[in-house]
Amino acid sequence: MVRRRLSAELLASGVYEETADDAAVILSELISNALRHARPLPSGDIRVAWSREGDLVQLAVSDGGATTEPRRARATLSSLGGRGLGIVETLSDGWGVLHEDSGTTVWATLHSPHASNGLTMTPGQPTQSILHQTR
In this structure, are residues 10 and 53 in contact, taking their beta carbons and an 8 Å threshold? Predict the structure, then answer.
């Protein structure tokens, strides 16, 4: 649901399909990592946000943090996991981790060539704000 909504909103704002697809994969990996490795926010949720400002698409997933720092792993061919942040690193122009009192945000950015319709999503405003974490 989140991937479809992100893709639809990016496409409607004029982002090329390839960029919207990459953004959806990146967001999916960030959400998966938060659900698998982190605690929920104090509200019991994780927060998902995206925005587009000019040629930059920004994606972010916030959670309650974990005992380890999000980092790219070097997965072997037989590993069942450990490729998520490698995928994020490959598809994005940059990614990082922001620690705040309320939790951790893992973010990624993608360059999006000028769009055909020139519409812009408001920067910093989450378009999809909450996912309920179930464990």
Answer: no
Structural domain range at position 84: 2-132
3-state DSSP call for residue 78? coil
What is d(CA 19, CA 88) in angstroms, rounded to the nearest whole number? Answer: 13
Domain total in the chain: 1
Per-residue pLDDT 10s for the chain (135 aa) are: 888 999 999 999 889 999 999 999 999 999 988 988 888 888 888 999 999 888 899 999 999 988 666 555 565 555 445 557 888 999 999 999 998 888 899 999 999 875 555 444 444 444 443 444 433
Closest CA to 106 of 42, 43, 37: 37
CATH number of the structural domain spanning residue 77: 3.30.565.10
